[in-house]
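Model the whole thing, not chain by chain.
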Amino acid sequence: AQRVTQPEKLLSVFKGAPVELKCNYSYSGSPELFWYVQYSRQRLQLLLRHISRESIKGFTADLNKGETSFHLKKPFAQEEDSAMYYCAPRFGNEKLTFGTGTRLTIIP
Amino acid sequence: EAQVTQNPRYLITVTGKKLTVTCSQNMNHEYMSWYRQDPGLGLRQIYYSMNVEVTDKGDVPEGYKVSRKEKRNFPLILESPSPNQTSLYFCASSAPGTAAREQYFGPGTRLTVT
């Protein structure tokens, strides 16, 4: 069955330290992969998509087909990165599947 | 301004009293969807619509209805709300046809059923 897993519900990182939010999926094909972010009191919004190979707000995410992972990384955490992060693959159709989310807290 | 709007933003109701949460988008998007967000469970899809008059169940459709009579509107209907439907609800829309399909989310509706 197709599924997505974000193993950490909560993650606390000191300001300036590296951040890695984990996302694993199970799917035999090639999914489209997205990371969404929800800052406090704001609506959910797209952070980045794997197909673009972009860096947004210092975050990058690499698709590792061998490990079926799409971890979100940032080398130096900033306080404004505190938010809820959702990994969201699309498994071959229009429907996005959201992970359970990781709440990231940056400690000043 | 391109946006997705939801109304109401906050609603407290009693068990069994029918309610409707409206969702509207001004981006001419064909795809629209409803999610509920619960602590520890993340976002779960309730219903989605690929286009006008085309709707389908998501992961947790029980207790909900939707309709898509116009492209811009996608209301969520709770015929007989129950306390387990207390949640934060999000509507979203997206344009189909490209690999970089971004979903635009509404601000959310916090529903409490007592």
